[in-house]
Amino acid sequence: MTMANERASTATGNRLKLVLAWGFVGIPLAWGVIQTLVNAIKAFQ
Amino acid sequence: MAFAFLNRSRTVAPPGYSRWLIPPAALCVHLCIGQAYAFSVFNLPMTKLIGISQSAPDDWKLTELGWIFSIAIFFLGASAAVFGRWVEEGGPRRAMFTSALCWAGGFFVSAIGVYLHSLWIVYLGYGVLGGIGLGLGYISPVSTLIRWFPDRPGMATGMAIMGFGGGAFIASPLSVWLMGQFSTPTHIGVAETFAVMGLIYLCFMMVGAAIVRLPPPGWSPAGFVMPRESRLVTTRNVFVYEALKTPQFWLIWWVLCLNVTAGIGVLGQASAMSQEMFRGHITAIAASGFVGLFSLFNMLGRFFWSSSSDYLGRKNTYFVFFALGTILYALVPHSGEIGSVALFVFCYAVIFSMYGGGFATVPAYLRDIFGTRYVGAIHGLLLTAWSMAGIFGPVLVNYIREYNITHGVAPAQAYNITMYVMAVLLVIGFICNAFIKAVHPRHYLEEQPRTVGEAGAATAPAGE
Fold it and tell me: Which residues, other chains included, contact B127 with Cβ-Cβ below 8 Å and sequence gap of 6+?
């Protein structure tokens, strides 16, 4: 494996880890925020 | 050694490790411990564990249940202060791992307490054990984030502390849904909900502990040049207990305490205040919608203000909190007089954003004044200001209101006086902030041994 290939595979691995890590925390947080907003909108109706 | 993977040396990032993996690791912990803000959803169900449809004589009272949260907040401050140095020296993974065990353990013990209907076990579980988990978890990622983001420390810590504000958004609907699943006509599923939440939080926090890493020795972000020492940003370090001997520590302590006292004081009154100030215009349901909206501003303010502080400077950011806060607190009574709900909501939204911003900006302020090396431990000591404000704020607000009402002041006007008193507290905070200067050189550490990722070390390329 050349240095360039190695670097590219590290970058791809990093990108995947970043998507997984941010999705792991971002999805529940987004769900919670949406629930709160939906409840707030219901309260104003 | 069975727990060798927790060692600080085993936590150092390999080459190419992306520093953007550290904020999600911190969020894994902060989103879980942020559940504390949503604990009140259990209060009412826990007053009907025996009576089911209504409270029975042997059921727990709301006043007794209120102590659970108070004990947890007390132990948050106490454990952050006592274990701050241990967290700093043991590394973030050990601290996050221990925090996860304490926090989840608190839920499991509380589940047993609810099952056996013993309030003391719940106090011990959620209050003491959970409170220690709160304190350790709150400070565990702070210094790690600052080391990975020497160019944007405010933004980095703001992201984690935003998670603490956001945890309630997840916990509140999740708790209600779980209780709905476990409840039957003859049973309220609080114990089962505690057990399941403990398990979820344990897994979630362990993921954070697994992915957190310290930067390698001498690491700094690509292209980053350490700015020259300025008047209020040091490149040197103050030892954790030496910081206690400086006036700067106590001035920042009061800055945080006063900002939180003012915010926490009106936080609990937002719903009642809006209904009484706009009688006939705002219903109880609409008021609860406002509270949800204000919580959102509390969360977003943590990220917005701490990120802004990287450009504005920490001292200036607190000047904004105190100056703008004073104006807005004084404007709230006026919004009632002119009947402007929009002005009321605007004032409150900004006030709550600055309340959250105060929490999120303070770690970077400490780093500027005392250096990076012991910032986590010093932050732990500073959190006693939060515990104190948690007592001061509600007591002050309730006392002022009670005093005014017993002296014939109308309920809506009693709130006005409270807001003016809070504005005065912010003026005092402004003065404390104005007195903050650089630490006297005698307080700095003489020897400056290199620690991992410490600012000022030689640059080594690594992933962004």
Answer: B67, B68, B70, B71, B72, B75, B106
Over residues B215-233, mean pLDDT: 82
CA B464, CA B456: separation in Å to the nearest integer?
18
**Containing structural domain, residue A32:** 1-45
Do residue B265 and residue B401 come from a single domain?
yes
pLDDT of residue B463: 40
Whether residues B28 and A25 touch (CB distance < 8 A) is answered with: yes
Q: How confident is the model at residue B464 (pLDDT cuts 50, 70, 90)?
A: very low
Report the alpha-carbon distance of residue B431 to residue B318 in Å, rounded: 11
Q: Are residues B258 and B183 in the same domain?
A: no
Q: What residues of A are in contact with residue B342 (Cβ under 8 Å)?
A: none
Residue written as token pair 């945080």: B256
Residues of A contacting chain B (CB within 8 angstroms): 10, 14, 17-18, 21-22, 24-25, 28-29, 31-33, 35-37, 39-44
The residue segments making up the domain with residue B88 are 4-211
B281 shares a domain with B338:
yes
Task: Give the pLDDT mean for B212-238.
Answer: 85
Confidence of residue B273 (pLDDT cuts 50, 70, 90): confident
- Min Cα–Cα distance to chain B from A27, Å: 10
